[in-house]
TrEMBL record:
<feature type="binding site">
    <location>
        <position position="107"/>
    </location>
    <ligand>
        <name>Mg(2+) 2</name>
    </ligand>
</feature>
<feature type="binding site">
    <location>
        <position position="105"/>
    </location>
    <ligand>
        <name>Mg(2+) 2</name>
    </ligand>
</feature>
<keyword id="KW-0479">Metal-binding</keyword>
<feature type="binding site">
    <location>
        <position position="87"/>
    </location>
    <ligand>
        <name>Mg(2+) 1</name>
    </ligand>
</feature>
<feature type="domain" description="DUF402">
    <location>
        <begin position="18"/>
        <end position="156"/>
    </location>
</feature>
<keyword id="KW-0460">Magnesium</keyword>
<dbReference type="InterPro" id="IPR007295">
    <property type="entry name" value="DUF402"/>
</dbReference>
<keyword id="KW-0378">Hydrolase</keyword>
<feature type="active site" description="Proton donor">
    <location>
        <position position="23"/>
    </location>
</feature>
<protein>
    <recommendedName>
        <fullName>Nucleoside triphosphate/diphosphate phosphatase</fullName>
        <ecNumber>3.6.1.15</ecNumber>
        <ecNumber>3.6.1.6</ecNumber>
    </recommendedName>
</protein>
<dbReference type="InterPro" id="IPR035930">
    <property type="entry name" value="FomD-like_sf"/>
</dbReference>
<dbReference type="Pfam" id="PF04167">
    <property type="entry name" value="DUF402"/>
</dbReference>
<feature type="binding site">
    <location>
        <position position="107"/>
    </location>
    <ligand>
        <name>Mg(2+) 1</name>
    </ligand>
</feature>
<comment type="function">
    <text>Has nucleoside phosphatase activity towards nucleoside triphosphates and nucleoside diphosphates.</text>
</comment>
<dbReference type="InterPro" id="IPR050212">
    <property type="entry name" value="Ntdp-like"/>
</dbReference>
<dbReference type="InterPro" id="IPR016882">
    <property type="entry name" value="SA1684"/>
</dbReference>
<feature type="binding site">
    <location>
        <position position="120"/>
    </location>
    <ligand>
        <name>Mg(2+) 2</name>
    </ligand>
</feature>
Length: 178
């Protein structure tokens, strides 16, 4: 697996368990790229859905992907605070200028006060049945959901108080260079 370079612009591709494309983010600036972690940022980037519909993201976002954890975290910078949207997903891989992962339906919305809601449990159950998710995937996702909830409660990783400031400043630096 290649590693994305800091300052490089990449695409983010989300797939479903059956291999079909789910969603593509056209442009994300890499702020940190290692074998295990990719932190990116985007703002008003074009997103294409599996059915061809497109839309633009509304606010600047810092995106956190890990090669060992079964979730990725989108930190949306809004006027009234940082909102987090977490996709329960496979760890990422990077190839051909695109970061790729499998979206496993379950999502967690985290509010600026660190309260949260688990979303799409019905969609997960439906897709688990339709796409035949193996029991081992179900167990891995449940363990990783517990890990994620611990991170939120302990304000670890992207939920740490200084995470947004550090990576927003790095994003501003790369935007000025363009």
């Amino acid at each position: 697996m290649t590693i994305p370079r800091e300052g490089e612009t990449i695409q983010v591709h989300s797939y479903k368990h059956d291999g079909h494309i789910h969603r593509v983010w056209q442009e994300t600036t890499v702020l940190k790229g290692t074998r295990n972690i990719v932190i990116g940022a985007n703002e008003r980037t074009l997103v294409t859905e599996a059915d061809g519909r497109t839309w633009l993201t509304r606010e600047p976002s810092i995106c956190y992907f890990h090669a060992e954890h079964w979730f990725n975290i989108i930190c949306m910078l809004r006027e009234d605070g940082v909102y987090y949207y977490v996709n329960m997903s496979s760890p990422f891989v990077f190839d051909n200028q695109a970061l790729k992962y499998i979206d496993y339906d379950l999502d967690v919305k985290v509010f600026p006060d660190m309260s949260y809601m688990i979303l799409d449990e019905d969609e997960y159950a439906d897709h688990k049945r339709k796409m035949n998710y193996p029991d081992v995937i179900d167990q891995i996702l449940k363990r990783n959901l517990e890990k994620l909830l611990t991170w939120i409660k302990q304000r670890r990783g992207p939920f740490a108080p200084d995470f947004i400031e550090v990576w927003t400043n790095r994003y501003k630096f790369y935007k000025q260079m363009k």
